[in-house]
Amino acid sequence: MIRPLLFASLLLINCRPPQPAAVSQTNLPVSISTTPPDEVAVFRNGDEGYGCYRIPAVVKAPDGALLAFAEGRRTDCGDFGDVDIVLRISRDNGKTWGPQTLVADYGTAQAGNPAPVFDLTDPRYPAGRLFLVYNTGVASESDVRNGKAIREVWYKTSTDGGKTWSAPVNITTQVNRPNKPAVNPAYAFADDWRSYANTPGHALQLAKGSYRGRLFVAANHSAGAPQSAFRDYRAHAFYSDDHGQTWKLSPDVDYAGGNESTAAETSDGGVLMNIRNQSGDVKSRLMAWSPTAGAAWNPVVVSSDLPDPVCQGSMVNYQTTEGRSVLLFSNPNSQTKREKLTVRYSTDDGKSWSRGREVYSGSAAYSDLVVQADGQIGVLYERDNYTLITYAHFPYTWLTQ
């Protein structure tokens, strides 16, 4: 992930990748509610011996429990250092949260970018099996991007709703393409992927169509030596059709500068990737559709409905009480600052988006969306200059008022 201090440098770079056509929409002002959603702090800087909490991810268990993950950063809010993945669970739709537990630890180095997803189709686990995909690193993103280290990709599983966890499984050779044989002889790919990150935020299991049951993880990487305007970055994905036994890579999404991405299922059983535009040539989200759920991508379009200050966002599937399938998306509603966390909905598989409702008007950054057992929508997000991660929830009708 790229620190906010780098954003200003993007404005000074004249070299820009070709711009795909923007979706033609009317950018209406955001509706600001006088009755904000219910909200509670989940992770607060200084608690449990961590100087900072960042990178929220949240999923709903089959029994309705909400599992909130975050990076617990021991010393400060910097992206690299002694970083663990921690978890808190709510059993009352986000009103209260249980004690914090440690899920992934990589010693004094980095375990981060949590991407949780429940596999609900494995007959061996009728109560569901929780996957937590994550990355480890032993150097800063700058050093990794410059070829001095690599990021590895792992997963853990839990069959009891996050109470206990399996040993970690390294899937780097299946879903990454590093060229670092000195680290591992198997890491000798000519592609030379360097920087690497899962989504971050929840991963996806497809629920219908030809690819039902597919576990799908949005991701991104850099390839080769660093380029200006972050043109060495590309979004991609990886997926499993056999409950995590093996994993396959999707092709890259064809846009120079595509970075942190989030995915949701489309009405035809395919996938939409909603991507952070790290190049900054257009301060809007990038959209890539795949009718084959990751096997190939349609040409990228820029969504003028989704302004973005170069930040992560979250997308999730939702079904209305009338049975209508919609997509929900959250991100900071600004092209200049990480502020004004806003949630929008789309009724046409992401081709157009509502004007949005503002969840919080102040400083806000990374977020992750979830649908609660009671049908309300929850969003776990960073606020107030990364001093805490809070959970807000609201009914779908709040978005449509």
Structural account:
The chain has 401 residues and is mainly β. It has one domain: Neuraminidase, CATH 2.120.10.10. Helix content is 4%, strand content 43%. The protein is built from four helices and 25 strands. It has helices at 7-10, 141-145, 172-175, 396-400; strands at 22-23, 38-44, 52-60, 66-73, 83-90, 101-104, 110-119, 129-137, 151-158, 169-170, 193-198, 204-205, 215-223, 233-240, 248-249, 258-265, 271-277, 284-290, 301-307, 314-319, 325-332, 339-346, 357-371, 377-383, 388-394. A seven-stranded antiparallel sheet has the order 2-25-24-23-22-21-20. Strands 1-19-18-17-16 form a five-stranded mixed sheet, with no helix packed on it. Strands 11, 12, 13, 14 and 15 form a five-stranded antiparallel sheet that branches. It is globular. Mean pLDDT is 92; it is low at 1-29.
Helical segment tally? 4
- Listing every helix as H and every strand as E from the N terminus to the C terminus, the arrangement reads HEEEEEEEEHEEHEEEEEEEEEEEEEEEH
For the biggest β-sheet, the strand order reads 2-25-24-23-22-21-20
Number of domains: 1
